Amino acid sequence: MKPARWLAPSCFLLALAAAAWRAPLPAVPEFVPPPAARPDRNPAAFAAELLPTAAPSAHAAALAELADGRIAAAWFAGTREGAADVAVWFATRSTGVWSAPQAIATRESTAAATRAYVRKVGNPVLYAEGGRLHLWFVSVAMGGWAGSSLNHAVSNDGGATWSPPAKLQTSPFLNISTLGRAPPVALADGGLGLPVYHEFVAKHGEWLRLGADGRIVDKVRMAHEVRTLQPAVAAFDERHALAILRDAGPGPGRIRVATSVDGGQHWPAAAALPLPNPNSSVTLLRLQSGRLLIAGNGAGNRNQLLLWVSDDTGKTWRLARTVESDADELVEFSYPALLQARDGRIHLAYTWRRQGIKHAEFSEAWLAGEAP
Amino acid sequence: MNATAIYGWLAHGVVLGALVSLLPLGGARRYLAWAALPLALVSEGAVLLHGFAGTPSVTLLALAGWQLLGRALSPLGRRPAWIIIGFAVLFYPLALGLGPFDPYAIGYQPWPLLAAGLLLGMLLWRQRRDDWLFILGAGLAAYAGGLFVNLWDALVDPLLVLAAVAVVVRQRILGRSAGSNNTAG
Question: What is residue A249's three-state secondary structure?
């Protein structure tokens, strides 16, 4: 037999062996368990202000606490949602004052870094991991938000400078239709679990498991009998977590639920919460006290922004506070983001009338009904 | 800019060059196809295609390169084209959410795919399809080199499926044309 006969199979086998060497074999996933519950001692307090204006139309805020204690916010803003001049903006809050917003991702900068055409950008997600600040945001080349791809950038100086964004490979079809909205959950192996969603052909939540090096090592679908979007996740211990999702079905909507009992390997649907959801973004936070907090809209439209609390890991919920309310159903207070800082104070950022991003800071005592 | 971004941009330049080589441009076709490659990179044509189509698979790049080099017989004959189309008909609807099973997710920890790849490699070797052994081997090598995090992306993409459909349609048309000529004769 001629030696040439063996060239192709030898190359193939070599490549196959190299691929096997590189294929990840991650450990069974576990969440980083939250610290033991402790009561919040902060007195009742509530204060709110608009973030400095970056552009006439603003939407979809995200929050993170930096290593030095500053609160960071990111959102997208431009002349209107989807316009070519929309950028992802970033500001930090120190001693009660917000810095001037700076554009940290534009269509031009994203296109230059990914060598791929970008028509618009949107939906930022922030996450502080020690001194590293992660930013995920979506970019679209054609069509609406269903055509989104997910990009990732990192800052090692509290958001002053950012790495060039890299496009994540999350979909086999033109790499489209993966969007983020809520922050990730830390995993015991040093990786992250990032809740994302898909909205081309079908609409459902997804769970991206990232390794400690940031590489995607798994993707899990959060299947529901109705269309769902924008999962937000809170972990209770190493194995158990709760995800709440926006109801994108025919309505009347309720906050949808998926749960995991195996560290995020599976996310079966659970019974919807008895809380309304008018096809709008919701967010979930496990407080230091062990209570759960949800921010979302009321039954009508997006003209009411409400806070619900659960004392029993999500079994029952009660309305704790109405943050915004307007009789005009066309007025919008939406897309909330929640964060509890290390000092115990709770931060809420949300879209305010599409004209700006509003930030509210409050304590658990205020949530419990005490007057500031 | 990471390596995957540069690969995707350059590969789409080759794809656009290959597309030009398919146009009925007479004797200048090969020269114009080669000229289209740098032109696509400079004129942002490759950037546009990269934005719309995502990162091309190594399989598509290899077939495009084959076409650009002017090799007479493309590995993408009728049988491989039908296999790709059949695969796509099952794979993409499931991966896009029709049903609970997501076959794309397997590509992130692709042990079952690698096992299937070994069997496929043996089959190709028995059939003396060295061209496809090299192409699939290049895809595996690209995955091993870190250009792709999901093995499926290294092997298949929607433009490859489109190319397979084009091959089948073209052969159908040519077959009918030959049939009608025979009848007429």
Answer: coil
